[in-house]
Every structure is written in C-alpha cells, then in structure tokens.
Amino acid sequence: MMKSGMGCGGDQFPAGLRVLVVDDDVTCLRILDQMLQKCSYRVTVCSRASRALSLLRERKDGFDVVISDVYMPDMDGFKLLELVGLEMDLPVIMMSADGSTNAVMKGIKHGACDYLIKPVRMEELKNIWQHVVRKKWNENKELENSCSLEDSEQQRRVIDEAEYASSVNDGTDSTWRSQKKKRDAKEDDDGELDSEDPSASKKPRVVWSVELHQQFVNAVNQLGIDKAVPKKILELMNVPGLTRENVASHLQKFRLYLKRLSGVSHPSSFYSPLEPNSKVDSLGRLDFPMLNAAGQISPQTIAAFRAELIGRPSDSLLLPPVDQQVFLQSSEGPKFVPFEHRVPVGQPILKCQSNLSNQHLHSSSSLEDSSPSFPAWSSNHPDMSGCASSLEAVSSMRNGNIPVQMVQPFPMQPKSQHAINVQPSCLVTPSQSLHSFQAGSIHIPVNSNSTAPLSQTLANHHARKSSVCVTEGYNTDNSNMVLGYSHPLSQSNNGTTVMVQVSDEDIKGVGMSNAHSMSGAISSSISAASGHADCNNHWQVQNSLVNIGYSNKMPGFARNLHNHVFESKLGTLPEQGAGRNLGFIGKGTCIPSQSAGDDIESSTTDMRQTSACTFDNTEIVKQELGFDFLDDFTSGNSVLSHFPQNGFAGVLSK
Amino acid sequence: MLGLGACNLEVDMNRLIELLFHQQFMQLQHLQDESSPNFVYEVVTLYFRESEKLLRNLRALLWDRESTDYKKMGIHLNQMMGSSSSIGAKRVRNICAAFRSASEHGNWIGCIQSLEVLEHEYYYLKNKLHEFLQIEQQRVIAVGRTIHLSRQ
C-alpha cells in the first residue's frame, strides 16, 4: 500500500505520503494543496466527492490518506467516508469549519481517524502521517495473525514471523508505538510487501458504487436488517453480475458499519470507529489469498485433522466429513459471512442451506449424539486460530464448530452454521467464532449470539490497537470460552481427551509461530483441564512443557486466562451471580499460574459486576466484557512487558 | 529611494493585515514560494469568486421567506466560513457564524440582516484585499528593482 509512498520514502519518511484532498471549496482546496506540498507530501486534489471516489477506485493503493470536507454538494463527506471505509481501507481525515461537538462526533462515528477544523493549519497537516502509520501498524498486527493462519506450509516460516512479531512487540510493549512510528512503519512495509502483493494484484471485486450501495441499502431495509440475507438481497437488487458472495461480504461490512454507528452509547463506542476499517481491510486483502491458499493446503490440513482425530473411535468417523464439508465452505468463505446476524432471527434457515445442507445435516445429526466431539473441535479451534495453521483449517474448524453448536440448541437450523461462517471471512480475528460458539452453548438467545462476536471483534481490535499483549489475551480469552462451552455439555472423557490431544499437537507443531499462538494453545488446553478435574492431571502430564512455560514466563497470560475463565463461567451460569464466579476464579488459580491469579482479582471484580448485572442482554455484556478486557490487558501490559516476547517463542520452541 | 519605498509599503501592508486578518493570512504568505509565486493572489482571487457566488446563492435563498431552504443555507454558510477562515478573514467568518446560527433557528429576519452585514463586510474585505494585492505587487516590483539595482 505504501510501497511507493512510504516504502521509497526511506529516511525522510513522511515525505512522499500520497494524500487525496476532497473539498468543494476551491479556495480551501488550493490552500491545502499548497500546504501539503510544503510538507513534501504528494497531493491530489479533487473538488467533487464522486470524482474522488472514482479516483480512489481506479487507483487502489494509490493513496495513503484521504482528507475530506464534510459538506459537499454531490456527496456528503460522511457518505464518502463510509464508502471509503467499506471499499478500501484508508485513513480518512474529515475537515470542516463546523467544529461543533456534534459534527466532530459524527465524523468519528463514521470512522474518521481525525477531524480538522478549518482553518486547517500547517502544523496539523504536517502530522497527518501518523494516521497512516497507525493504521498500518494495526493492520499489521492483524496481518501477522492472519498470515500465520494463511498457510500450513508456512509453518517453517512461522518461526521467522515469530521473531518478527516479537521484535515489533518489544517496541510496542514499552513505548506504545508512538515513539516508534517510523521504525515500525518501515517494518510494517517490509512485512506487508510479502503478504499483500499477491492479493493486491488480483481483485475481481465488485465496485460498490453509490447507486449500487443504495440499492443494497434499500433491499436491506425492505427485508429488515435482521432478516436480510444475501440471497434475498441479491434477488431484490436484481443486478446482473452480482454474486451472492459479493452481497454477502458487503452485507457484513454494512452491518459492521451499522454496528459502529449504533455502538456509540456503549462503553466501547470510542474504539468502535477504528474497528470496521481493519475489518474491511482484512476482507479486501486477505480473503483472496487465503482462499487460494485453501485450495493448496486443504488436503494436508484434512490429513492433519484426521491424524489428530484418529485416537477417538466415536468421532473419527464423524469429523472428517465435517471437515471436508467445511472445506467446501471455506473455499467460498465470504459468501457466508453475512449470515452472522441472520442467526439471531432464528428464521427457517434450511432453505438457504445451499450446498452444505446435506452433508451438514448428516454430520450434525451424528454429532448431536456424540457431544464429546464438540469439545474436541472447540479446543482445536482456539489453537488453530491462534497458531499458524492453515486458514482452511481454521475456517473449517469454525464451520465444523458451528454446525455442531447450532445443532444443539437449535437442531432445526443447519443454517446457523452460516452464522459462524461469517468469521472465516474475518480471518483477521479468527478467534471470534469461539465466542459465538460459546454463546450458543450457553443457550443464550441466538440473537445475542450473533452480536457477541461483533462486539468481541471490537474488543479485539481495540486490543490490537492498544498493544500486543491484548491480542494474546484475546486468544486466551477465546480458548477459555471453549471451557464455558464444554462445561454445559458435561464433557465426557472422550471429548476431553481429544481436546488434550489437539492442544498438545498444536503446541508442538504449530504453536511456535508466535506468542499469540502460544497463548491460544495453552489457554485452550487449560480450559480443558479446568473444565474437567480428572482430565486436568492428564493434560498437565501431556503438556508439561507448556505448563512450565506458562507458569514461569507468562503471568500476563495467566491473568488473562483467569479473567476469561471467569467470564466463560459466568456465561454458563448467568443466574449464579458474583459469589459463584469468585469461587470459580479460585478454581482457576489452581491452573499452573497461581502468581497471576492475585493480580487479576481487582479487574475481575469489575468484570463480574458488569457481566452479572447485564447478563440478560448478552450484547451489552459482551461489549462491556470486551471493554474490560481491554482495560485488563492494558494494565496487564506492565506485567507482560517484563518478559521479552522472545521468551514466549523460546518457551514454545523448546 | 526605491528601496525606502518598498519598506514603507511593507509597513503599510502589515498594518493592513493586522487590521483585517487572522494570522492565517500570514501563513498564506509563507506558503508562497518559488514554485508558486502567485499563490496569494491566486487564492484571494479564488476566494472572491467563490464568495460572490455564495453570496448570490444566499440572497437567492432568502428571496422568498416561505420557501427558504435553511439547510442549504447552512451548507453555503459553512463553506463560506471555511474559506474565509482559511484565508484568515476572521471578521467575515464570524459574521458567517452568526448568520448560520440565525439560519439554524429559521430566523428569516435574522438571516436577512446577517446577509446584509456579511455583504458589507465582504466588500470591505475585498476592497482592502485589492489594495493589499496592489501594494504587494508594487512591493515585489520594488524589491525586484532593488535587487536588480544592487546587483548592478
């Protein structure tokens, strides 16, 4: 993206930043042009929003940052902002003479990364490069995760990545990136050139013009946002050439957008504007390569899964079919994305089932009988997402998980499976699905289920933004969610064993990729252990190496773990209230890392309160929880920062 | 003799600027460099053109009291505020702000009054700016000559 801009910039970095300025006021435009040129930026000016949009579409990756006026006759600046956010992932700076709080708030809600009040001063413009770097930096965090997921063949490479990640992490841990923008930006560039180029070259993407988008919005409105499914939208829109996939992915983005707008009143609202962008980005850039990769890797992954599952007599038969099926799905990942929200509606989903239905039904029914398989999958899931296993693996896992999950509470809905499919497209935040999974297991209304992942995503994003530790914490959190899930199932030995195996495997094989994966794997196994007392020992034996690493070097993780364990517990027993939860925390401390347990207490209290109070409204709970995590993790930073990130990798590779 | 003239002109000019403009105008002058020697002139010309267009539109909008589109008016005023503040015409900007709040309240009378004040202020500014630009031109010429002479 910044290949030519920042990449070439070299030492005089901000120079050459490609800025697109949109303002219908030619006087301002001229002044801004001159000012930006003085800043040694490469400026493109444009007095019409529609023209700006077509410029942006023509030259994807042609700009690093967009500065847009708010009031423009042909298109509202917010509209432009929205479209830019939906289609391409660029930092957009709004500007206006109107500096009222309302106007600024509106800009932020729509995802503006900054809001300049006219007259714009030179000093402000000199500093706009920070938004580019910030965005880059955040993206890269996600890229790291998703890259590692992208290809199981890359596992060899993963070690390098782990080093890379840890070096970045080191920098950010201590300084929170503000001081290191330059360096990080360069690193990010390098990192991105590998991963992004292939995807950037091919993108047979539908251009969502204003008209098309309007049609889309009309269709959605007609159906009702909760009931809008890509297929119906597609029918309503009746646009030749448009595929369900296109609609699906756009619908997801649109929902994120709506979510962001509506999220203002929630605690996490401040972070929300940042989130969708990265999401969009991930959609735009990561999907394709990953899907491609899917084709190459799937056989191996399948094989791997089978190998893992062989130990289990009952499930081994079931899971492979799920697996395969999932692969089918994963190759069409984005298609299913929009269903996320669909699930809540709880509508007759069978009709939309499409290709999956047969196999799915088959597998799900069989799965239903054997609940043990679920825990197994779920445990798998966090590991995979956290680690560098192939994308397909993850998506397939998700798919596999979801059908199962859905089947339980809603045996009638093979379609619910789609709900989770949303996640594959959001590969960036792979672990989300777990949350939804967990939610399902708790028998929370499906509705909340669907919203939960979203808010989680928010949290996740913020987490990424704020620090690396957060990301790790997030993974942990996911895996713990598994615990919550497995609990209600009253796990059979079978299931737990599988869990252990999986996590074990992951730790050895894939877990080395980086700290994140580590945390994911560990936490998952831990969750398994905590879920079942007898298995606990078993697990510890198997993963003794991990335990050591965990208890010695990862107080931060432990901490997170506790929190999440706590949370998941809460989820399973909402009516129990605080006392029960505390008890659970106590239990949690039994887990290898006792030291961290104490630290957590304070933060957990908050958590318990928020979640306990509002549990009936899962969405809010989720959001608040997410919020809490954020706090937690940031506060946890100090703890974690004592331990060089390399430590994690080292422990893992032992 | 000519050099002295340039100095005097500069003093005049600065006084004028202080009288009329925000610091922003100074920034405009600083932005003028070799790559765009006529930058200030260019911007000011653009500003005149746009502002007059806006003033015409505003007047047209206020023509009929019953069908006044206050929203559109607000957008025009916002633009006028933006450009005026961008060139440093703070008084014009402030009047625009008052005008806009009148339009937000649907205060037609207030709008009409504001428009008159605005037009008055704008034309005053325009005259002064013309004056300034002329002085500026003379100064450039004078400085050019001075340099030219001193080189010889």
Provide a descriptive summary of the structure in words.
The complex is a heterodimer of chains A (654) and B (152). With 654 residues, chain A is mainly alpha-helical. Chain A has 32 helices and five strands. In chain A, strands 2-1-3-4-5 form a five-stranded parallel sheet, with helices on both faces. The longest helix of chain A has 36 residues, at 274-309. Mean pLDDT of chain A is 52; it is low at 1-10, 149-203 and 264-654. Chain B has 152 residues and is mostly helical. Chain B has a single domain, classed as HPT domain (Four Helix Bundle (Hemerythrin (Met), subunit A)), CATH 1.20.120.160. Helices cover 84% and strands 0% of the residues of chain B. Chain B contains six helices and no strands. Chain B has helices at 2-20, 23-31, 39-61, 70-87, 90-104, 108-151. The longest helix of chain B has 44 residues, at 108-151. The A-B interface holds A 24-28, 30-31, 34-35, 37-38, 69-71, 73, 96-98, 118-122 and B 22, 24, 27-28, 31, 33, 35-36, 39, 42-43, 46-47, 50, 75, 78-79, 81-83, 85-88, 93.
Care to give the gist of this entry?
Chain A: The modification 4-aspartylphosphate is found at residue 69. Chain A is mostly helical and 654 residues long. Chain A has 32 helices and 5 strands.
